[in-house]
Here is the input.
Amino acid sequence: MLAMDLVERFEEAPTSAAAGAAFFDVVSTWGVRAFFARAYSSRATTVATEHLARHQHVYARISPAGWEDAYRRANLDRNSPMIRGIQTRAESFIWSDILPAITELPWDGWRTLPDFSIENGIGVPVHGPGGYCAVVSMGFERIDLSPRERRAIDLACVALHDRMKALSPVPADIFVPLTTRERDTLAFVADGKSDWEISVILGIAQATAHSHVESAKRKLGARTRAQAVARAARLGLFF
Here is the structure.
C-alpha cells in the first residue's frame, strides 16, 4: 500500500523532527514546499493571535527560507484557514475550501504564499480528549494528487502525528482539562437541564452549577453552551 510505504519512511525515526523530515523528503516529490505539525489546546484556536504561541506545541516544521519571518511579520495566524479548519473539520481539508481568497474574513497569506512558490495546502486534523487538537499541514506548489495519493497522505499524516506525539510529549501546562464537576454539569446541559435542575441533581447551589458550566465553556473556548456541548462531545469528554 502507498500509505504504508510512506509510514515506513518515518516509523523508526528517533525524534519528532526527524520523523517530520523523513515524511517531507517523500511528499516534496509531490510538490510540497512547506510542512509543519503542531498540537493545540482547543482554547488556543480561539484566543487572540498574539497569545497563540503560548498554547501550542510544535512537533516538526520545515519551510522555505524566509517563510517563518514573513509569517510572523504578516501575522498570518489571524484568520488562518488552517486554524479555522481544525476548529470545524474532523477530516482533512484543502486550505482554500476553508477560507477562499475572496471572503468576508480575508487571509493575508494568499498574498504572501506566491513569494514562496506555494499555491495552496492541505491540513489533516487530529482531535483527542481534554481539548487536544493537532494538525499536520502541507503547503503545495500545486496540488495535483490522484485520489489514491490523497488518501495515502491523509492516512500517513495521522500515523505521523501519532509517532511524533510519542516522541515529543505535549507539556501538561498547555492544556487545561475539564474537572469531573465541569464534565458532569456540561453533560446535564447536553440533556437540556437548566442550572437549577443541575443544582438539584448534584446537590449543589445553583450559582455553583452555573460557575462549573461557565468554567467548562472557557476551557473549551466556547462562546455559548451549545458550542461547549458540541466541542465536548466531539472530543469524547462525555464518555
Summary: The longest helix spans residues 147-167. The radius of gyration is 20 Å.
